[in-house]
């Protein structure tokens, strides 16, 4: 699948990050099952626990609009290497994806890797574990 637009949106929203403490900007863009794209950046806080990551911001934006089926997510942090989502974000991604969801780790518009949830969060704790 062609994810150029999704990658561009992640790179673009990265520039809006509020990262005065870490100076580590992150952008994410998600495309949902209905084709709508939502984006988000990291938003830091002096109380680090109140910080929200770009991946969760993008997913929460989609869910707020009624979209709950993640088709793909593009994530960009450091543009010299691939930035993987943190553990909390991996768990949130797993809540709204399935085994076919593409997780795109971006350096720039031409360099990115595509992974699946089992690649980045093997043995994830999911709602299947709660409903028996």
From TrEMBL:
UniProt family annotation: Belongs to the cytidine and deoxycytidylate deaminase family.
CMP/dCMP-type deaminase domain: residues covered: 1-128
Protein name, entry field: Cytidine deaminase
EC number: 3.5.4.5
Gene3D superfamilies: Cytidine Deaminase, domain 2
UniProt cross-references to PANTHER family, sorted A to Z: CYTIDINE DEAMINASE
Catalytic reaction list: cytidine + H2O + H(+) = uridine + NH4(+); 2'-deoxycytidine + H2O + H(+) = 2'-deoxyuridine + NH4(+)
Keyword annotations from UniProtKB, A to Z: Hydrolase, Metal-binding, Zinc
Cross-referenced PROSITE patterns: CYT_DCMP_DEAMINASES_1 (PS00903), CYT_DCMP_DEAMINASES_2 (PS51747)
Keyword Hydrolase: yes
Keyword Hydrolase attributed: yes
Obligatory cofactor(s): Zn(2+)
Gene Ontology molecular function: cytidine deaminase activity
Superkingdom of source: Bacteria
CDD domains (UniProt xref): cytidine_deaminase
Function summary: This enzyme scavenges exogenous and endogenous cytidine and 2'-deoxycytidine for UMP synthesis.
SUPFAM superfamilies per record: Cytidine deaminase-like
């Amino acid at each position: 699948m062609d994810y150029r637009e999704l990658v561009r949106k992640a790179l673009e929203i990265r520039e809006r990050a509020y990262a005065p403490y870490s100076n580590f900007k992150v952008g994410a863009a998600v495309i949902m099952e209905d084709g709508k794209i939502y984006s988000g950046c990291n938003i830091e806080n002096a109380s680090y626990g109140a910080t929200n990551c770009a991946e969760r911001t993008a997913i929460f934006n989609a869910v707020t609009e009624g979209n709950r089926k993640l088709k793909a997510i593009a994530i960009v942090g450091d543009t010299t290497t691939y930035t993987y989502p943190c553990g909390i974000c991996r768990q949130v991604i797993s809540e709204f994806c399935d085994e076919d969801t593409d997780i795109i780790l971006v350096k720039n518009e031409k360099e990115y890797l595509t992974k699946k949830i089992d690649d980045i969060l093997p043995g994830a704790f999911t709602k299947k574990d709660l409903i028996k």
